[in-house]
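tool_call predict_complex ligand=heme C
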Amino acid sequence: MKVDAVAVAPLDLAAGTEILLASQKQGFPWLSANLLDPKGQPLFEPVRIKKVGAVKVGLIGLTGQLNSPPSGVRQADWRTLLPALIEKTARQCDILVLLSSLPPAENQEIARQFPAIHLILAANLDSGNMNPQQINNSLITQTDRQGKYQGVLTIDWNKNGKWGNSKEEELNTLRNRLGALNQQLQRMRKQADPQQPEYLAKVKVIEENRETVAQQIKDIELKGVVTGNGQNSTSEMSSFSFNFIPLKQSLPEAPDIRAIITGIKQQINEQNRKVTKKEESLPFLGHDGCKSCHPAQTKFWQSTNHSRAWETLQKANQAFNLECLPCHVISSSEIPVNRNQLLALPKSLQTVGCENCHVGPGKSHAANPEQFHMKKQVEEKICLSCHTPQHDNHFSYQEKMKRIACPAN
Ligand code: HEC
Ligand code: HEC
Ligand code: HEC
Ligand code: HEC
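tool_result ok
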């Protein structure tokens, strides 16, 4: 992919350091300032300086918290090593970028402490695409996980090293102001006695303001120049614009990469299948236990694909992939099912079953239906726990209900 720098993140170390060190030898630009060998020397390059046109860009890598560092790896605290590193690097470059998989709070702490860092590219698994936010003198931003988006940040860098407002931000502020002025005018026009000179003067002022704001918006839209409002130092400020480009499903697959991924998924599946122990006992009853008293609903459910959700995984060689299982087998918001249990479910729980929807578990109901009731209605949020936009981008509760709601007796 011709990358200039990649900071080592915790998941990159899942298979140990050897693979990374080998690719580093072949020239892959891994960075990490806080991963050290037993002697306290950095395992990877801490810093890279890359010339882009006339601008020298400094890149520092920091690796997020490792719960159990691989053998031969010590993780240093950034608080002890960053001050000296920044001091040294800042002198050698025009713009300083931190590539960080630290948690959001620590990135913000760094931004507050080190105004010499201009940009923090974060890598938090749960933050999704993050519009650049400025803290102190640093912009912090990131793209969503798993390469689903390409983040494009275009920077017009001015060597005084200060950020002005982004064009987007400036436009938003101006558009809001324009809206407010329009509303004010509308309100005033409804007022009584429009002939009063005082009133006319006020309207005139507002109209002039509106004209100025409209002109400022035009300037930005046409020329990309931020003007007016006393911010005339703007031309010396650095500015940026950003965009997240989604990876489209319509893009063609690379067959060799697809083959690697399929191979790895099958290895994971095989690995998990081997560690699977004997069946775990769970408080769910399973559809077999409902059949005798609710034959009509059971027969109907068997005709839906919910009853075959685990077989679907099996066909894809993914029936032991913990990433897939939670939505393709029994589950309930009320009963946590752990990894081991997910891998060792009895046959009748290896489906999206009755107790997923009728909020079980159903053992006590089956033993004493008059005393313990199952919920008949199924709320939308239950469906949405599995029918997430990522896995079903056509979910409509009303429409899909028609296809899966069990019939009355
Ligand atoms: C021994 C017979 C028996 C078994 C086994 C049984 N049920 Fe029931 N179920 C009943 C009876 C009887 C009612 C009606 C209870 C009532 O209306 O008070 C009922 C009612 C229901 C209702 C509708 C509740 C309502 O408000 O109308 C649902 C949903 C339900 N059962 C689901 C299940 C599920 C799921 C299972 C398996 C986990 C199951 N039942 C097992 C006898 C049984
Ligand atoms: C535990 C996760 C889970 C829950 C809860 C869930 N679904 Fe599903 N649903 C699935 C999966 C997985 C499939 C795909 C099954 C397959 O084809 O293997 C599916 C398939 C479907 C289908 C296609 C069925 C067919 O026969 O073609 C519909 C319609 C549907 N779900 C609607 C709903 C509605 C409505 C709800 C809530 C009332 C709901 N689902 C709750 C996981 C779930
Ligand atoms: C967050 C819940 C969730 C997870 C996790 C999940 N799925 Fe699904 N899956 C669904 C839902 C919901 C559907 C049904 C979508 C629809 O009806 O359009 C589905 C449908 C499918 C289908 C299509 C069935 C068909 O023939 O149309 C396949 C194949 C599938 N999933 C495989 C997987 C695999 C493999 C994984 C793990 C890598 C996985 N799923 C993880 C919820 C999930
Ligand atoms: C995907 C969700 C889903 C699954 C899975 C599911 N049901 Fe239902 N079931 C519904 C919905 C929706 C209704 C209709 C509720 C209503 O009328 O408000 C319903 C209705 C019922 C009723 C009440 C029928 C009546 O009106 O008297 C019973 C009993 C029932 N289901 C039993 C079962 C059993 C047994 C299973 C498993 C074999 C099962 N359901 C699986 C969604 C589900």
